[in-house]
Specification:
Layout lengths: L16 H26 L19 H9 L6 E2 L14 H9 L2 E2 L17 H5 L3 H16 L12 E7 L3 H7 L9 H6 L3 H10 L5 E4 L5 H15 L4 E7 L10
Parallel strand pairs: 3-4, 3-5
Antiparallel strand pairs: 1-2
C-alpha cells in the first residue's frame, strides 16, 4: 500500500495582496523614520559649554582673548631674557643668533610653572612632562569649571579627548640631556600621544582619546573629530582643542 502525503494544505487561498502591500508600506515608513533620525543626528547642533585658554599677550581667559581681538592689540613682544637657559650667553651660540635675527615672538607667561600636586602628579614626573601636557591639563580643567561641571562627576563617563598637537621640541631637549637624567617618565613626558591620554587618565574619562597632527590644521581637525564622535554616539561630551609651544631656540632663527 502506498500513501501519498503532503504537509501543505491543498486548495489554499492566494495571499491577500492588500495585506502584503500594507506590510511593505509599513516597512518603508519604518525605514524612512530611521533614515530621518540618522540625518537629524548628523546635523545636530553642538553646544560649546566651557572654554579655557593660554595665549601670548597675558591672555589666560576667553574674556581676555576677546578683549585682545576687539582692541586690535599686538601680542608679539621681545624675547624675555629668561626664555631659555640663563647659562647660555645671549651673545653667543644659538641664543645669540636668535637674539640677533629673531628677537620677537608670541610668548606665554610662566610656561615653566605648574601645580603638579593639584593633578596628583609628583614633582619628579612633572619635571619630565612636556609643558604642552601641563598647559592642556590646566586649560581642560578650566573649561570644565567654566561649564559648571564638577570634574569628579566625569570619572567613568563617555567623555572624549581630542588634542591637536604637532611640536616635539621638549622630546628633543629631554633626549639630548645627560643620559643619567633619563628615567621612566621621560617617554610619557615627551610623547605626543600622551597629551590626550594623560587628560583622560587624570580625569578618569572613558571616551575616545587621541592626539591629532595635521600641521597647522591640527586643532580644527580635533574639533571636527570631536563633533563627529558626539554625533556617532561614541562620546556624550568631549574636550577638544590644541596646543603649540616652541621650546627650542632653533625655530626662531
Amino acid at each position: 500500500m502506498f500513501c501519498f502525503m503532503t504537509g501543505k494544505k491543498t486548495g489554499t487561498q492566494p495571499p491577500d495582496r492588500r495585506e502584503v502591500l500594507r506590510q511593505a508600506l509599513d516597512a518603508l515608513e519604518s525605514m524612512q523614520k530611521k533614515l530621518d533620525a540618522s540625518e537629524r543626528t548628523r546635523r545636530e547642533p553642538i553646544a560649546v559649554i566651557g572654554m579655557g585658554c593660554r595665549l601670548p599677550g597675558g591672555v589666560n581667559t576667553p574674556e581676555q582673548y576677546w578683549e585682545l581681538l576687539a582692541g586690535g592689540r599686538d601680542a608679539i613682544t621681545r624675547m624675555p631674557e629668561h626664555r631659555w637657559n640663563a647659562a647660555t650667553p645671549q651673545g653667543s651660540g644659538t641664543a645669540g643668533l636668535v637674539n640677533a635675527q629673531a628677537p620677537w615672538g608670541g610668548f606665554l607667561e610662566d610656561i615653566e610653572r605648574f601645580d603638579a600636586g593639584f593633578f596628583g602628579i609628583s614633582r619628579r614626573e612633572a619635571e619630565s612632562m612636556d609643558p604642552q601636557q601641563r598647559l592642556l591639563l590646566e586649560v581642560s580643567w578650566e573649561a570644565i569649571e567654566r561649564a559648571c561641571i564638577d570634574a569628579s562627576t566625569l570619572r567613568g563617563s563617555k567623555t572624549g579627548v581630542f588634542v591637536g598637537v604637532t611640536t616635539t621640541d621638549y622630546s628633543h631637549i629631554a633626549l639630548n640631556q645627560d643620559p643619567a637624567l633619563l628615567d621612566a617618565y621621560t617617554a610619557t613626558g615627551s610623547a605626543l600621544n600622551v597629551t590626550a591620554g594623560r587628560i583622560a587618565y587624570v580625569l578618569g574619562l572613558n571616551g575616545p582619546a587621541m592626539a591629532i597632527d595635521t600641521a597647522c590644521s591640527s586643532s580644527l581637525v580635533a574639533l571636527h573629530l570631536a563633533c563627529q564622535s558626539l554625533r556617532l554616539g561614541e562620546a556624550d561630551m568631549a574636550l577638544a582643542g590644541g596646543v603649540t609651544a616652541l621650546l627650542k631656540q632653533e625655530p626662531f632663527i
